[in-house]
Amino acid sequence: MSKIRIYLQPGRITDVVKIGDKTLIHKIKNVLRLASADIIYIFDGLGKEYTYRIENIKKNTLSLKQESILRVSNQRDSKVTLAFPIEKEERVDFILQKATEFGVSDFLPFSSQRSLRQKVSPQRLKRWQRIIVEAVRQSERLWIPGIREVSTFKAIAESDYRIKLAGSIKGQAFEKVLNKEHSNILFIVGPVGDFSLQEFGILEENQFKLVKLASQVLRVETAAIFAVGFLNYFFLNNES
Question: Does 2.40.240.20 match the CATH number of domain 5-72?
């Protein structure tokens, strides 16, 4: 059986934890068939994971007792922030899930000339956050990426990062613009139909380096996942 991991905010993590989430209790008791003395793992999203033992399971309450701190991890020096355009819901869901699995640090959704210009409600933002937390839980990450409210393309382009990259079929190879000393990286992926000429101009004005992801045109979600995956691979294999 794989590890049973639960996310709790740091302030809720104490020696004894009581959980009243009926759906979670049903899953643990009736689906996974865990019982008293079985182990559950709790992570706080800020680099720590704890071992807890089940004290008792009731219909409306799960009581857990902390046994140890299992893992502690500092954030990596090489942070990758992904900026992506507002697109159809299923595309955004895929980007959030897979980029989280690949180790992205933060998400910056934005509206642009060729992206959808829908307003993102607080409920939708909370849904995105739930998708991210679930991807962290499933992939056994310890840090939960942040996701900001939707911004404009121009505001994203003008933001301050050590190195700023944008995907373009006319760009250079990743290896020509990166080295292992780089950190605090922003990667921005274009919408369906690519950035407009005006937006390419804004990228140039704000010192973005264009990188080529493939010889063919990629879907938005494919480009986003490939870029984050490559950057994760590059830095994992170039750490001192």
Answer: yes
Closest CA to 82 of 116, 13, 128, 37: 128
Pairing outcome for strands 5-7 and 16-19: unpaired
Q: How far apart are CA 93 and CA 220, in angstroms?
A: 12
Query: HEC profile for 172-201?
Result: ECHHHHCCCCCCCEEEECCCCCCCCHHHHH
CA distance 26 to 146: 29
Contact 42, 52 (CB under 8 A): yes
Burial class for 116, CB neighbours closer than 10 Å (0-12, 13-18, 19+): middle
Average pLDDT, stretch 177-199?
86
pLDDT greater than 70 at residue 43: yes
Phi, psi of 50 (to 5 degrees): -120, 150
Instruction: Tell whether the torsion through CA atoms of 220, 222, 228 and 234 is positive or negative.
Output: negative
- The domain ranges of the chain are 5-72, 80-236
- Given a cut of 80, is residue 116 above it in pLDDT? no
In contact, 133 and 42? CB cutoff 8 Å: no
Q: Which amino acid, one-letter code, is at 52?
A: Y
Pick the CATH number of 80-236 from 3.40.50.880, 3.40.50.620, 3.40.1280.10, 3.40.50.1970: 3.40.1280.10
Residue 142: what are its φ and ψ, rounded to 5°?
Answer: -110, -20
What 3-state class would DSSP assign to 81? strand
The pLDDT-based confidence of 32 (bands split at 50, 70, 90) is confident
